[in-house]
Structure formats: C-alpha cells, structure tokens
Fold these 3 entries.
Entry 1:
Amino acid sequence: MKSRIILWILTVALLIALPPAVLAIGQPFYLDLVRRVMIFAIAAISLNLILGYGGLVSFGHAAYLGIGGYAVGILGFYGFHNGWLQWGVAIGASALVAAAIGAVSVRTSGIYFIMITLAFTQMLYYLGISLEEYGGDDGMRLKARSQFPLIDLGDPVVFYYLVLAFMLLSVYFTYRIVNSRFGMVLRAAKSNEARSRAIGFSPYPYRLAAFVIAGAMCGLAGALLVNHTNYLTPDFMHWTRSGEVMFMVILGGMASTAGPVLGAFALLLVEDLLSGWTEHWQVILGPLLILSVVFFRRGLAGMFYKPDA
Amino acid sequence: MLEIRGLTKSFGALRATDAVDLDVQEGETLAIIGPNGAGKTTLISQLAGNLRPDAGTIRFAGEDITRLPAPKRSRKGFARSFQITSVYPDFTALENVALAVQAHAGHSFRFWRPTRGDAALTGPARRVLEEVGLGARSDVLAVNMSHGEHRQLEVAMALATRPRLLLLDEPMAGMGIEESQLMISLLASLKGGHTIVLVEHDMDAVFRLADRIAVLVYGRVIATDSPEKIKMNEEVRKAYLGEEA
C-alpha cells in the first residue's frame, strides 16, 4: 500500500515537472502528446468503473467522447463559448444518453451487452456523419476553445495542468466510489451475481447508475478532447475508438486504480514511438499488445500487485 | 410459516418437482432427503426464487410469494446456502459477510464513504463470523480458504441477513468427518432460534438436526414425518434408506 502511494507521488511529481522541462529543451510537442494521453486516461478510468469493477463489457464507450465533443462543438458553433455551459451540457448529455442506452443494455449480459452497446454507438456515429450542418463526415474546426474565467485553455501549459487535475480527480473519485457501499455492490455483482441476488441485492439499478457515472465522466473527457484537437469529427465515436479505450483498460489492468492510466500511457506512447519509425506501425503494435496481454495477466498494474492474504 | 401447494416444475419430459405439498412451521427444522436426482436442489431453488415453478403456490407468512424474485425474497427473510460453494472469491471473509449485512441495511446508493471502516457493517459481520467459528479468519481472502471454511462462510452470509427462514442446500457436501461434526454442532446451535429447511445426504446430520423429515423421490414427497417414524416407514426404507441400512 505504502509503496503504491510513493509511486503515485513520483508519477504526479513527474507530470507536474513535465511542462517546464519540455519547454526548456524546446520540445513543446511532448506537452501536446501527454495532454492527449491524459484525456484518454480519463476515458479509460471511466470505462474501468463499469468494465473492470462492474464486469460490464461496454464496446461503445467512445459514444460519450463524441457526445462531450459535440456538446462543446455545437454550442461553440452557435457562439456559446462559456466553458461552464459547454462542459455542463457535455456531462449532462452524456449522462442522459448513458441512462437511455444503459436502461436497455444493462439488463442483458455477455455478448448481447457487447453488441447492444456497440450498436448504439454506431448509431450515434452515423448520426454524427449525417449532421451536415456541423461538418458531417469531415467534421468542423472549433471557432474557439471553451472559455473560463481566469483559466485560458489557449495556453497549452494551463490546459495541460487542467487536464492533469481532472485526471487525478477522476482517479480519486473512482477510488472512492469502488470502495463505497455502492462500489461493493457493483464489484460483488461482477464476482458472483447469484450470490448477490441470494443475499438480497438487485444488481440492475446499481449497474445502471455506474453506467451513467461512467458515461458522464467520459463526456468530460470528450469535452477536453475536442478542446485539445480544436476539431470535431464523428471519428470521436468510431468503434475503433471504443476498442482503443477498452484496450487501455485491459492492458493497464482491469479493476485497479492505476491500471487505466498506465494503459493509456503505454498504448499511446508506444503508438507514437512506432508511428515515428514506420508507416506500418500497427503491424508491430498488434503483436506487442497480444504479448502484453499474454504475459501481464493482471495488466501493467499487475507488476505492482502483491497478493493480500 | 411456509406453505407449499401443488408445486410442479418440469425440465422437458422430466418432472423434477411433482405436485409437492409441504408445510414448514415457525422454529422447526425440516429436512428434505431423497436419492440423487430426486429433485431436492430444484425444490430449494424454487423456494429461494432462483427457479420459477410451472404450477403451484408458495406462501410465506400468509403472503403468496410464488413469483417474487430472489433479491426480494431475501429481503422478506429468506436466506440460502448453495450446494456448490458460492461466495465472493476475491473478497475477504469479512467483506463477504459485510456485504450480506449491507444488503439488508437499506439502499446502497452511497458513493463516498469506504465500507472498510464502517462499523455498522463490519461490527455485525464480525459477530456472525465468530458465531460460525471463522473469527480468526476474517481477513483471509475467500479464494484462499478451505472447502470446510467456505461452507461455514456460506452459513455466515445467510445468518448475516438476519433471516426468518434458512434454506440450506447440502451444507455438509464434500466435507470430511471432522468438518461435518463442526457444521452439525453449528447448525444444532441455530436450531430453534431459526426456521430451517435442510437438504442433506448425511443421514447422521439429518437425524440429529431434523424435527421432521420429508422424503422426496422422483420429485414427489412420499412421506413427511418425525425422524423416528421415517426410520420405520417401509416405503422410505425401500426407496432410500434400504440402500444404506
């Protein structure tokens, strides 16, 4: 436990020290890269809540990246640049859509759940393509980043620290949830549903609530992502995006606090490294991912895992 | 307290439960015995709400609960242990039992406070663990416990819900002689204070614990009587006890 806290402190210290360091060596590109990684880490943390702790294999989590992105993009399109409004709508709309998708899908399990979540996300993806007004297939450029008093997202360093803060908050928030009464019900239902029902839990409302929380959190990641890219496109919701986020969770370690963060860093940094070497980087990444899943049964976080009793 | 009338369940052509009538009185221990495949687990599953009967009714304290799902039955005071161990393997013994306490402590939409230090949950959970003899093992992960301990843990989880009716599906299954004796004395200590429906193969246990015995053969109850009379019953001896006697 203690060693894990030390690792966290070191990681946070490193991430705080990064901007002045990369600016000093004249490589601001890395700021951009790590900011993007941390945004995806938030998405992965949110997915881990339902996938890792809840056992709900959602193959449509990118839907909320899209909804968060579209909320910011569309409001900006009509001249509403107020960040509180944009991000509030991003989170609220994601929660609403998650409630609707969840109400239908959470009752099912296994392959049906995977397929339904995938199908809903594909629907939203094609809806995005059909919205010609907002760029349709090509997407559209943001007129301006979300505007907050005192915080200027146009400043890459400020934006970086904001994303870092949100990522750490997401980690802490999830950590609290999964150890609360609510989290215990969620994890118990994943571990042994028959047992849960026998002692008096109906898992459905708890799973649905977790699904909504995860959707809302990922909606925030979507709002961050569209500000990061300055560009809104339906690709936010493409099924490969859902797969990518899912892979971060699995690679990093399901049902662990640090797992999704490790997974996001590992996947996106390796991807960046390989794509710098060769155009066919996916040919190398694929086998690497397979090997990592075979050798790290508990994900990368499993390297720090010590069996309790 | 429990009235079962005309309960019937078929799997294809097989009548696993065939027009079963049974009554369980408050405070008594009713044992259900019968050869393998007689439909004992099928019957328990219908009582617990895991399986829906094709016909018949189950009334509990005067209320028809035939179609009530398992979680709601639990909240009415049913508790079940499973024939095949069913615990939460990745949780400690304490966490397993605390979850059972939590299930009966109002809703669980509480998102912030950790359950680990929550005395409202761990207090009763520790007491029940002491009661079943697992007090010293409360911080062990269930996956690392022995088979006998799993059975004790199942009973602990059932007790933690403060049940009015205990449905125990072969609590002695797969136990060694010593473990069985421990379990029998544990159940004997619960007897009287709880209403118990016990499915069991171990005749020693059945005759020591049961106030009445129902004999199930091919899904039918062929006799329900006191242990002494069941021992003497010709039909029962032929169908079941004869194999061992």
Entry 2:
Amino acid sequence: MPFLIFIEAVSYIARVLSLSIRLFANMMSGHALLKILIGFS
Amino acid sequence: MLNSNYLVNLLLINTTNLSDPLEQFEVVSVFSLGGVSLFNNLALILFLNILLICAFLSAYNVNVTNNYDLATRGIYKLVQAMVKENLYIRKQQYFAVLFYLFLTLLFANLIGLLPYSFTVTSSFVVTLFISLLHFVGVNVIGAHQHG
C-alpha cells in the first residue's frame, strides 16, 4: 500500500513535466523542420 | 542601450542565416542598461501578447455588430461549450481561467506565424511556467475546498 501511494504521487507530479516537455518539443521540432525546408528552396 | 542588431533583423533589413535552423529559438537581449539585460525578445513577445488580448477583448461591443464582435463571440462560445461539457455545473466560475489560457495560447501561436517573429510556446520556460501555475493553482484550490 505505501508503494502504491509512492507510485501515484510520482505519476501525478511527473504529468506536469511531461506535458510541458511535450508541448515544447512539438513546437520546437515543427519550427526547426519548417526552417530546414525553407533552407532547401 | 537598445540592441540594434536585433531590431535590424526584425525590420527585414538584414536576412537571418538560413543554414542554422536552431538560431530562431535564441533569446537575445533587446534593451540593456550598464551591461545588465533588462528586456529580451521573449519578454517583448509576451508583452505584445497581453496587449493583443486586451485590444481584442476591448473591441467587444454589445450594440454594434462587426467582425471583431463575431470573432470574440465565436471564441467565447467555443470555450464555453468546452467548459460546459468537461466541468461540473457548480464549477463554472473557472471559465475565466480557461478562457484566458485559450486566448494566450491562440495569440502566442498566431504571433509565431509571422515571419522573423518568435514563438513563445517553443521555449521551455513558458510551457513549464504555464503547467506549474495551473498545477499549483488546482492543488491549492482543491486542498482549500476539500481539506
């Protein structure tokens, strides 16, 4: 039971970090890809 | 003093380096005083974002119907439908937070569409700040109401 509490707390806190990293990575990769494709033309 | 190199790049007089795809994410100083940077382009775009939201919302007028009112009403109805189906009926006062969050992300991404501009959501500080702000807020309100 204490182990379950630990796992739930970690997953609750890690959601903040993982969702913000996901938004940041998607925006950054999209902009970098567009810049590379513009550079080809 | 003003960073003249950044302003020259912003005014399309000098084209930026196309061979480096990661230099568009650089946070450079715009205004510095005595070697201390007081204002960078991230803060500049965030400030512009707030100004655009204020201008967009203050264009709303009940008596006159024009395109601004149509856009404002459409976004309001969109967020209201989202809040109505995802939140309890007695928790509808948090509509304002979600409406402001929606407008912030919308205007940040619309400013980022402009060429030679800067997208604030592609910097990790902004996304981490938004998520931590709402995480702390939700936990404080929940502990205050149920604790």
Entry 3:
Amino acid sequence: MLSYYFDLAFRSFRQNKVLTALMVLAIALGIGASMTTLTVFYVLSGDPIPNKSGRLYHPQLDAESMSGYVPGEEPAEQLTRFDAEALVRSGRADRQALMASGAAAVDPEDSRLKPFYVDARYTTADFFPMFDLSFRYGRGWSASEDEARARVAVISRELNDKLFDGADSTGRTVRLDDHEFRVVGVLERWRPVPRFYDLNSERYGEVEQVFVPFSTSRDLQLSRSGSMSCWDDAGGDETGLNAPCVWMQLWVELDSPEKAAGYRAFLENYSEEQRAAGRFERPTNVRLRNVMEWLDYARVVPGDVRLQLWLALGFLLVCLLNTVGLLLAKFLRRSGEVGVRRALGASRRQILSQFLVEAGVIGLAGGVLGLALALLGLWAVRQQPAEYADLAHLDPVMLSTTIAASVVAGLVAGLLPAWHACQISPAMQLKSQ
Amino acid sequence: MDIRPILSTLSRHKTAAGLIALEIALSCAIVSNAVFLIGNRLERMAQPSGVAETELLHILLAGTARDADHAALTREDLAALRAVPGVRQVAAVNQVPFQSSSWNTAVNMQPDQTHPTLVGTTYFGSEDLLETLGLRLVAGRDFQPDEYQEFAAFQRSGGESPIPSVILTRDLADRLFPDSEPLGQSIYAWGNRPSRVVGVVEHLIRPNDTVGAPNEREFSMLLPLLAPTEYGSRYLIRADPERRGEVMDAALAALDRVYPSRIVLEEQTGTLEAFRDTYYQEDRAMAWLLVVVCVALLVVTALGIVGLASFWVQQRARQIGVRRALGATRGQILGYFQTENFIIASFGIALGMALAYAINGALMERYELPRLPWQYLPAGALTLWTLGQLAVLGPARRAAAAAPAVATRSV
Amino acid sequence: MLQMQNVSKVYRTELVETHALRQFEIHVREGEFVAVTGPSGSGKTTFLNIAGLLEELSGGSYLLDGVRAETLNDDQRSRLRNEKIGFIFQGFNLIPDLNLFDNVDVPLRYRGLPRADRKARIEAALEQVGLASRMKHYPAELSGGQQQRAAIARALAGEPRLLLADEPTGNLDSHMAREVMELLERLNADGATIVMVTHDPELAARAQRNVHIVDGQASELEAVTVPLRTRSHAGDA
C-alpha cells in the first residue's frame, strides 16, 4: 500500500512541477538556515570537557573594598593572587590549579626563524591531570617544581613542530623572553570549546602554546595579559602577592557532591577568616560553579549567535506556513479525485496516509536540499572573521537531525491540509461536479 | 469595491486565508525587527571615532629590550619616527581605538566617594598625542609640557603624585557636569588627587565599545602621562593617506635601527582604517545576514501568496466566468483579487505589528536594544501591502483574462 | 432587439479550423419568446456565446438593441452585457460562497448602483421568483429548482432588455422544470424578450417561434400556431 502512495506522490509531483519545486525550496531554505545556525549554536554551547565538566569547579570570592559595594552583586570573576595561592596551598580539593595568561617571545635555536610571540599560560602542576591532558612526549611538571620555581615548560604540539620538527624535545631548551626553559612535556592537540578555563579573551580561541609554572613566571616577571581589575592603588606592582587586583583563575576538582558542598563551606569559612583578619571588607559572598554553570553564568555563547538562531527558526516557521498553504491548495485542488477515491472505497485513513506520504516526501527532498544549503551556510560561517569560525562543521548528529527535522517539518506541514482533504465527503464532490 | 461579499467569501475559506495572513504577520514582525537591527548596526558603524582614521598608523613592538632605559628609548624612537619622510606627527600611546586592550578607570567627583560616578577609558602616551590622533578641541587647551610625568613614576607614588590636568570628550563632560561649564572643574580619576579639566574634545571613542553600555562609548579622557613600555611600545604615526604603505615600511626600519631585533606584533600593527574594518566586520556580516533573511522572507511570503492565489483563481475559474458573463469587466475581476489580498494582508499586518512589538520587547530585554520606533510599523505594513499586491497581480491577471464563455460550458 | 446578419464564427487551433457558425441570420423582435434548437455540436452554444457577448464574432454583423456589438472592446461588451442581458444558465452558476441576496447583487454591483436601489431590486427580484424568504441561504442549501429560480432572479434584477436562457431546465427533474418554464412564460407575458437555447423539442414547442440550427446555419421553422398565452392558460387550468 505504501508503495502505491509513493507512486501517487511522484505522479502528483510531475503534474505540479513548479508548485512542488516551490515547496521543496521553501522547506530547504528554512531547514538550511536553521541547521546552519543551530550547528553553530550547538558547537558553541557544547560541553568543553564532557568527562569531567560536572566535577570541575570555579571558585569566586569577594575580595574588593567597600567602595562601590552593591549588596547582592556577583563577586568578581577572577581572584587575587593572594587568595588563589592560599586556596591552592590549602589543598582541600582533589586537585587544584591556579592560572593566569601571558605572552612570551620565543627565540628559536634555528637562526633561520625570526623571534615570535606566543600566548603562554602560567599555572600549577595539577593543571595537566585535572583537565585530562594527554602528552605526546614527556609529562607535566610536579608540585615540587612549582615550589622550586623550576625553569621548566610544557609546549604544544604545534610549537614543538615549529621549533623541533616534531621530534621528542623533552630535555631540550626553549628560550622564552631571554630565559632558558627545559622542555618537560609536549601536549597532544587540545581544543576545548569554549576555552572554559579562562574566558577573558578569545573564548573560542586556541589553547596557549607554552605552559610554565606560575611561580617561575612571577620570579622572572614574564609579561602578563588578560583582564585585570584593581580597586586600590597597587603602587606599580599589580601582580604582587598583596596587590588589590583580581587577575587569576582558579579551578578545583571535587569528585563528589559532598566534597563540593564541603568545599563551598570551606570557601565561606576562608572568606570569614579573611574578614576577621581585615583583608576582606565585604560580607562573605562566595560562588562555586561547575563548568556548565560557569559557562552559563558567563553567557559564553555570543549574543549574535543566539539572535541568528532565533532569526533562522522564525524563518523556518514562515517557510513551513508557506508549505502548509501550498499543500492545502494542492490537496484541495484534488477534491474531485478524493471524492472518486472515497466513492471507490478508500477510507479516510487511507486518504490521510496518501497525502501524508506526499508531504513527507516533499519534506525529505527539502531536507536533502536543505542539507546542501546548511553545508554552504557553514562554509560561509567559516569565512567569517569570528574566532569560532573554524569550528562550524556539521557532525553526524546534526546531519541526521537535519534530515529528521525536515521530514518532520514536511509531515507537520502536511497534517492540516491532509486532514482537510480527508474530510471531503464523496457524495458532495460527485454531485456538485 | 465593497468588501462585504469578499469578507463573506473569505470567511468560508478560513484555513487558507488564515495561513497566508499568519505568514504575512510573521514576515512583517521579523522584517520590521530585522530592519531595525540593521539600522542599529549601521548606526553603530557610522558613529565617528573622533580620530583621523585615514591618516593614522599604529605600531606595537614587544618589549624584549628588558634592560634598556625605557624613557630614553621612547624618546629616541619618537625622534627616529619623526625623521621618516611623509610623517606628519608622531606620538606614543597606551591604547588605540578598534583594539581589544583598553585602560579603564573609575571617575569620582569627590575624593572619598564610595560609589564611582562612572567608569571611563584613559588615553595617554606622549606630548602631541591629541594632535596626532587628530582630535578636535572644542573648548580649553591641550596639555602643557610641564604637566606631563612618567607613568611609572606616577604609579610608584601610589596615586599621590597629582595628575594636574585632564581633557574630556564632550559626551563625558556633559555627563559629569550636566549643568555647568566643565573647564576649571576637578574630577578624581586615577589616584586620590584632583585633576582639573583643561580641555574638551568633540569626539573620541573607547578602544572597544563592548566595555560599558552603548551610550557610554565616548566615556574617554586624555591624561598627561608618558606611556609605560613594559607592555611593549605603541606608537601612532599620522601620515599622508596615500603614503601610508611606504611610511610604515620606513618607520619599522627606523625603529629597528634604534634598537635591533624588537618583535613587531603584526596583528596590532597597521592602519587605523584596517583596524576599523576588522573591528566592524562582525556587525557588517550580521547586517548582511539580516538583509539576506529579510529578502528571503519576503520572497518566500510572496511565493506563498502567488501559490495560494493561483489555487483560488483555478478553483474559481467557473465563478470568474459567471461574473464576467454577468457583466464584470477585466478590471473588476482584477480588483476583486487585489482587494481580497489587501484584506488578508491587513489582517496579517495587524497581527504582525503586535508580534513585532512582542519580539522587540524580548530583544530589548536580552540585547539592550532601544524600543522599536513606531515609524517602522507603517513602513513594514506598506512593504507587506505592496508585496501582497505585486504577488497577487500575476494570478489576478490570469483570472481577469479568463474567457466569460466558461459560464455556458456544461460541466 | 437582436439581429444577426451573415454572422460567422471560426475556431482555429494549430491543426484545424472549425466553422461553428456560417452565414448565420436571426432576428428577434421585442417581446418575443424564441427557442433556438438543434442537435449537439450544431452551434447552439456558439450562438448563445455570441448573442450574450461572451465571444467575439469572426464575421458579419450583430445589432443588440440598436448597438453594433462587433465594434466593441472587452470592457464595452462587459458593460453592455451587464445592462442589456440577463443570463440563465443550465448549471445555474450561482456563486457557492455567496448567499442568495449577494448572488443577485453581483451584476448590480458591477453596474455600480447605489445601495438602496440595489437592495430594492434584489428584494423585488427574489420576490418575483418566490424566494424572498430564502435571501440569507447559500446555494448548497436549496433544491435545484430553487437554485435556478434564484439564477433567474439574478438575471431579472438588472432589468435586462433580453433574457438569454441556456437549457434552463436541463439539470432539473420534470416537476421543477415545469415550475421554471412557467416562470419564464409569465415573464414573457409581462413583456420580457426571451431567447432560449434547448435541444428539447417539447420545450421548444412552448416558444412562439423556433429557430433550428444545423451545421452552424439557421433555418426558421413555421411559427407555432397556438398562441403561447392560451397554452399556458390551458396548462394552468
């Protein structure tokens, strides 16, 4: 029976080529636009570290002075160096790493290469195991190397390719800002999307190419970048231990909800202690968000991307309405045919199925064309200057979603017209004709 | 043409008419908001920066010269740059428009204010900065040589070394001193000592207007400080627009002669015009996208109207023949379908306007957009009405061309 | 009232030329009730279309109530049709989306009459055919005879000089057919000029005069001897 409906559907398409093409095109445009924007949205709002995002937490404290205090306001997104170091030292979490961003001039051994700048991250030993980083060569550094302000560095695979032609460079020397560092590890490629651990710049950018111990970076006064906010005069030393400035990120790993609750209590307790000691002036106001909560709070998906998604969905809705209207016209034009079929013994159900098959096939055709349009759309997104541009690719999930969505769209669009068509009474039609 | 019989006919084809009306409503709502958004983006892009964009070059050198005497090096660099042929003016600077890095400070009117009046950005660098940027002074004067001090020295003082003077943008001056003359008054911007307003410039945007609300984009001030070099050396060169390319090459060569093998940060070295272009690229892309969506929406809606009108014409072929037999002229048949479309469009537009306001409300909440100006509504209505009339013209003409003899044809 | 001289009508397609009417002559005087008969394919419908100004003639001349029809453009013909002719179709051709009042209103609208005038005419016309109480009904809610009577009311409302009826009883059963025929005869008795196309000789016999079309040419049959009025009175008795 179904094959008969398909046969009827194709006959009907041949009869109304222009109308059919219009409907397919309308669905394709709507689906193409929606899937393009939905894919971008899906990529940008994804979980950057799916295995651990529920166990990684981002603590916030309110260390500012009373100046500008507004009760109920969120505490600063970053920490002071004093607090970050104190919390890492306390070791209350399963793992903890403080970090800050910077930049360093790399002076290659190979004299044919000119010196160049790379982004650097100054952090502590737990960074690598906590974020599940895998190493191509070597390993991360140890807590004792943090302590000793060792001149060690972990470099990205990209930098290793550039400086050492991809060879195992552990034990070799890399010159950063005129200082010699021993390479202890080379990372495998890592691209968390978004770059959740530090959202101050390039939220969807690449990960840094050089990692060195934070203690070493302060020792050598390596240059710092990223956002910094001071509420008092730092006397020319904003990165000093006691500077009234927030500029560091801290991440902790807490393997169970109980531990998370315990750590929150610890943060409150710490804040109270600091208040008692006179370092904190504001009432205790701490936050402990896991990765997805943090991304949500930071509104990481760009507003324009959300706007485009809504726009595309609105467009799809108009395209669907259009298809409903055209299908209605098409089906009702065949009232006579329906009357005859009904007179010849077709049930309402059978008429409904016939027209739904036709609508579904239109949806499918629209989906295939829409997929092509979505690929074109994503190609266009990749040509954009946005930092997330290179991430806009269709994955198998979105691909199958596209096809499924368009068939569903076709069926939904066909439902009302098909229902109308199957309401046609056989007697009425035959008589008035 | 009297509309009652048309209404009566439409009321017997509610579903089809309703669908088209709904489609028109959605198109109307989305298009009015999209056009509004496009207007917003264009407005943002068209706002003056206040600086001589077409004449400015910016160079950023990374500060590898770690042991050098920075102040002396900066003076040498500036002298070398001034000597480059084609250079009109040169200044050191801490930040430039259309770049992501910016220096911001709270601004207070009293020394011990608990809540800052506002947060603004601070431009400084070297003497001649105001002229090099090409700012237009609308009141007061530029800084005098004895007002300048090294940023490092100021910082070491712990905010106690006074910054004697400050130059504000007109926008900032109006905000801080709404009812009085700003010249001669004092503000507390950086440090605990007052700075006297000595000048007001017409325009100067923040390096990055994503910091602060849209109406704070000109919260900028100039300070008589000499730029620090620990974050690298930034220089602004004002040159003949035609000679920018050669001046840039010569300037980089000159800087290399002053102190060899400093790293030029390519991304932040170039013309202000190019920076501006990159800076607004996303806005431009978004505006184009909105244009494309609007056109696509209108085309799809028009096709929907054509499709449904064609269906109706075909369905009513006999009725049209009868009307013709009863004496209707072609023009009257044409008029019938156009009036019918006008009525459907009007229902759609009425609904669309309500929807447009609802969408605008949601956008206002999420994107800090202003309220949709009422002028957009009649404009949107007119667009959809015109679109409907044009779309229905083809099918209606076909209907009008139908031979009246259809009426006598037996079925 | 209606005079055709040497009228011809040729339909051309890519392959064939069909001469639907040739040297066609007919003359209908004011107040007459003329039946046009003939077998199917003889040119009856073509005659009707030309008489009703629905189609243009290929040759000859056609004088309708003193107006030369062959020189008119489409709009002028629409106007003339609207003012001088009342159509009664075999399939009634009421507009299904409009109620009876609005259906009868259609030709009056095209004439652009003021509202009050239209209302009076519609009510009078519906009264005349006995459907005044069904004004708000839609065609689908009426019997075939009632629909045809409504169609006649629509034809009458414009006070035409000429009623053109195309197989007016063709879609009706005998009872309803008689009803409609009696209505037409009464209208004729009140002074209306009627041209009725039919293939039914019995019906044709009730007209005052018969014109027979064969192969696109007309031949006048002998006049009916019995005056129509007498016959109709006899029918009533």
